[in-house]
Write a structure and sequence with these properties.
- The chain is α+β, with helices and mostly antiparallel strands and about 130 residues long.
- It is about 20% helix and about 30% strand.
- Strands 5, 6, 7, 8 and 9 form a 5-stranded mixed beta sheet that branches. A 4-stranded mixed beta sheet has the order 1-4-3-2, covered by helices on one side.
- The model has no long low-confidence stretch (mean pLDDT about 95).
């Protein structure tokens, strides 16, 4: 295997096609606390210190992105996030049992939900690793 001469850093930004960039930006501000960073031709970028999402005016294509996951620090925060999502009438998966393992046999816990263009998002808490 060839050695790669660099290590990628945190996410700079990624782009999504949405029906209405301004309305989507307001949704991300209200629901995930992201802030508008700048506008560009036919779009707006929102984000925080961890990620920037460039919202381009276009035809949404949620099937092209399985989902995007963001880590939260602990279960208390994840439960607060769930209450916040419900207050904002966000379409949360698994009604009645919304917080669950990221995958079968996983100790990581998450919440999955969709935005106004049906892109799928996850908020998750990573299990503490046991020292050996």
């Amino acid at each position: 295997m060839m050695k790669v001469p660099f290590t990628i850093g945190q996410v700079g930004h990624f782009g999504l096609s949405v029906r209405n960039p301004s309305a989507s930006a307001r949704w991300f501000e209200r629901v995930l606390g992201l802030k508008e960073q700048f506008e560009f031709e036919k779009g707006v970028a929102i984000g925080n210190d961890n990620v920037t999402i460039a919202l381009h005016k276009g035809k949404p294509s949620p099937q092209t992105l399985g989902h995007m996951s963001f880590h939260l620090p602990d279960m208390k925060t994840l439960r607060k996030a769930l209450a916040h999502l419900k207050r904002h009438k966000v379409k949360v998966e698994d009604p009645g049992d919304e917080i669950g393992p990221e995958a079968p046999e996983s100790h990581n816990m998450g919440i999955w939900f969709s935005d106004r263009d049906n892109y799928r998002w996850e908020l998750s808490v990573q299990a503490k690793r046991r020292r050996r």
